[in-house]
């Protein structure tokens, strides 16, 4: 499962989020096509690399013609008008649904601050065109990256005051604070001034599922630059892309003793439990009450999935109950490399990285399948597959060394 973790250590805004997405690997042409797809074909896009406190980041600016800028920024558009643009935008239904939710929340927050109905809110501070492009673009960006779940670390609020059309307001702006209800906050931090814009706050609200759980690995990082460039800290949003690791982190152990199941059904029970989602399971003989021989069955299960696995265990065994307790599992970093030791026969080779280097092992089922069809010893095919996998790892490392 591909995940994204938003790290708003210096706050968050819409343009910082878009910059981080492009910096993390989204093609620039996607963002350049966005204005036309939301009905703002006259708006240009400027994408450039900048540094923020020596950190290289991507800065995004939307170039709004003066007459349109005056209209959008001074007079604004109502939430209803922006919702209509979202409904007609050339984006997926998923993006439309989340963007609609974002503008409805933004309207409710701004409306409660200014004492007007949500649908009548005019986006004076954020700017209608900017808000539309930031919100639709950020939501679509995560979808285009193939992200299955978005999480966030605590958000820095900033401190001091921010100037608005009718005077000065304390940081964070009232609408931003309303939208951040339920979001983890980092009160300390070096940011002076507004760190979280209403657009950034509402993106956290509709995109993030909260703090990340244990058991994930980093695959890449993107940095989205803010407009200010203070010397004390990098004014940027850090976006961490990674993969959820099902074999790492907090797990639960499920165990039962069975003394009235024929041993010939043990393998079908084990397979049923694995098919239900167990990470691993083991069976060993033991002695039960009254001197009866019995089997101790133990399964390793992801946290939160014990109901599904226990139902499979009850359905495929004679057990009347299970014991469940939590455990912390530490594992080595691992990956899989696919090779072709014989023409037309592909074998998956597992690679584990330990403190003394990597260890490789060919997947037995793939090796056995090839051996049966070719009439060759399985051990020969496994050895050749592992040799090929080692060559792949060496070539990859050589390429990385050259790039450095």
Give a summary of the structure in a few sentences.
With 404 residues, the protein is of the alpha+beta class. Helices cover 38% and strands 31% of the residues. The protein has helices spanning 14-23, 28-37, 66-75, 79-88, 93-114, 128-144, 174-179, 198-207, 266-275, 306-315, 364-374, 378-403, and strands at 2-7, 44-52, 55-63, 149-152, 155-156, 158-159, 161-164, 167-170, 185-186, 193-194, 216-225, 236-244, 249-258, 280-287, 293-302, 323-329, 333-342, 345-354, 357-362.
What percent strand?
Answer: 25-35%
Count of individual beta strands = 19
* Largest sheet strand order: 4-1-12-11
What general outline do the C-alpha atoms trace? elongated
Query: How confident is the prediction overall: mean pLDDT?
Result: 89
Q: Ranges with pLDDT <50 over ≥5 residues?
A: 68-76
**Structural class determined from secondary elements:** alpha+beta
Radius of gyration: 27 Å
**N→C terminal distance:** 29 Å
Number of helices: 12
